[in-house]
Amino acid sequence: MLVEPQKFNPFVEFGRKFIKNSHEKHRTSTEHPLVPKDIKLMKKIFGNIEKYEFQFLSASCYVFNLLGWKKLFKIFDSIFMFLDKILWYIPFLRPMYWQVLIKCYKN
After folding, report:
1. pLDDT tens digits for 52-93?
2. Is 39 contained in some domain?
3. Based on the structure, what is the number of domains in the chain?
């Protein structure tokens, strides 16, 4: 079981490109956010996977934390988390969710 970031959230990708993070310099050259190809490989290796994506719109709220606007973060995070649960039912949006929980298992 693992929880990892995915590659295609537009808000997170913007942050990765324009907001430098102190953790970035500690990553290895092989570390990267998951892409659909990685998930397909897990399915090929294990045969079975269950996955649940979370934080699509709510990922955009972290800018409020960076700016120190904690109240705005809490308000918008609650609203966007609710919307994220609804939008999750649209399959083509799922690779754009920031985080994915994956359970891999063999029968």
Report:
1. 999 999 999 988 988 899 999 999 999 999 999 999 999 999
2. yes
3. 1
| Inside any domain, residue 40 | yes
Look at residue 12 and tell me if it is in a domain. yes
> What secondary structure does DSSP assign to 37-100, as a single string?
HHHHHHHHHHSEEEEEEE-SGGGGGHHHHHTT-HHHHHHHHHHHHHHHHHHTTSGGGGGGSSEE
Q: How far is CA 71 from CA 9, 15, 62, 64, 75, in A?
A: 23, 21, 12, 9, 6
For residue 39, the enclosing domain spans: 2-18+33-105
pTM: 0.82
Give me the pLDDT at residue 12, please: 86
Q: Whose CA is closest to 8, among 28, 30, 29, 34? A: 34
In a domain, 88, yes or no: yes
Cβ atoms of 2 and 52 closer than 8 Å: no
Cα pseudo-dihedral 65, 62, 17, 103, rounded to 10:
140
